Amino acid sequence: MASGGSASDxxxxxxxxxxxxxxxxxxxxxxxxxxxxNWLFARHENGVFILRxxxxxxxxxxxxSVAGILEAMRWLGLDWDEGPEVGGAFGPYRQAERLDLYxxxxxxxxxxxxAYYCVCTPEELEARRKAALAASLSxxxxxxxxxxxxxxxxxxxxxxxxxxxxxxxxxIADLVHGPIRFEDAEPDDFILLRSxxxxxxxxxxVVDDVLMRITHVIRGDDHxxxxxxxxxxxxxxxxxxxxxxxxxxxxxxxxSRLSKRHGAMGVMxxxxxxxxxxxxxxxxARLGWSHxxxxxxxxxxxxxxxxxxxxGRTPAVFDPVKLEWLNGQYIKRAVPDRLAGLLKPFxxxxxxxxxxxxxxxxAWLQAVAGLFQERARTLSELASSSQFVFEGKxxxxxxxxxxxxxxxxxxxxxxxxxxxxxxxxxxxxxxESLFRTRAASLGLKLVDLAQPFRIALSGKTVSPPIFPMMxxxxxxxxxxxxxxxxxxxx
Length: 490
Ligand code: GLU
Hints:
It is a single chain. This protein is mainly alpha-helical and 490 residues long. The chain folds into 3 domains: 2-250, Rossmann fold, CATH 3.40.50.620; 334-393, Helicase, Ruva Protein, domain 3 (Orthogonal Bundle); 398-488, Orthogonal Bundle (Arc Repressor Mutant, subunit A). The protein has helices at residues 29-44, 63-76, 99-111, 122-134, 201-211, 227-236, 267-272, 277-286, 299-305, 320-333, 336-349, 354-360, 362-372, 379-386, 398-404, 407-421, 428-442, 446-458, 466-473, 475-487; strands at 16-19, 48-53, 85-86, 89-90, 93-94, 115-118, 159-162, 170-174, 178-182, 191-193, 216-220, 243-247, 250-251, 316-317. A hairpin with a 3-residue loop joins strand 8 (170-174) and strand 9. Helix 17 (428-442) crosses helix 18, helix 17 crosses helix 19 and helix 18 packs across helix 20 (475-487). Mean pLDDT is 93; it is low at 1-10. Bound molecules: glutamic acid. The site of glutamic acid has 7 residues, from loops.
């Protein structure tokens, strides 16, 4: 029996954790959450966070995927502390660059008589598996090559298998799930190195976790079934087992496993939809972890409060509506100059030209961001709802325009336009006092005058406070937009 909970130095040594994605696609929401929990745990414990790319499967791993994972990690602000130096910064560790280390460890196990060469061909193994299946016998490797030993040079086409010894029960003290007992855990003599010299997944993970002195393995609980084999490897290497924390998976709103049909899976898709990284981080942190009923956390608060004990044991449900709400909260709190910078590509995507943005200048763009940030849930929503304050064609809610801009409303708007023209200055304060005086003289409420004006101006029923917005737009554009709306039949 091996206990993952009693790794003697794990409790005293500096915390060292790793996120170990296989680069076979983009960084998805589940992977990002695993990365975040590792990062938060490392930062909370003043430990070390490592990024390790598990790219030993050349058929499925791509450089494009590695680049995408790094981009997403950087976007989320999950910086790593070690790795081979690339251009003055730490690159991630890449298993494909560490093959010698796995071979060296296999050699050590062979020399110690804890591993052996296996020359069974895939065809032979398959035939034996079928026969065992037909006879209802165990499908585990039958140990046929066990006697073959570990001669210094590998026989042609040989794989290396671990000589698995010991009782069939493996027990770990999982930091999320509590004690886990694998009853019939005695794994078969599994392969460490394939005949082409490439390490298997479990072997490369353990060798690296050993070499990187990983104290806590925090990963998705879809890896629980690998844990007994990995524990057996630590035993063979005579090394203490790290602590394990297996995080429950993420479900979609319909409680089936989160997948594409529940919406975007890739983290960077959220950037493209106009989510802020801190909203994403906050959301992912709360997806399976809690601190009382607090929903909004600064990064310092997350680091300060994060412990594995508070990671839930049951799967979390991904709720896009809550994520959107949270994003709105962060947009509301964002500093306008940062927001304006982030918004530029979204404004362009909503039809504002690059020249249009440049002409207005940063201070003006910041003022627009500041006015519109109150009610937008995504950057993309903010950009399209504010697009009419720029020159150029603007989108209008035609049905609402027709409904609100009755003939009577149009007459009032037209009269207002004429009075505005006589104002000595086109400022929010002057505009407001003009509208108020006018409403009072007509026996109307301010809103009864402002609302038709708003819709003529913006083509929308909701917008930020109308007077500062008009001041920002400037008299010429205000007049043009309103006149256009007055011209429409309705
Ligand atoms: N490479 C594995 C994956 O992408 C993770 C291995 C681990 O965390 O132990 O799922």
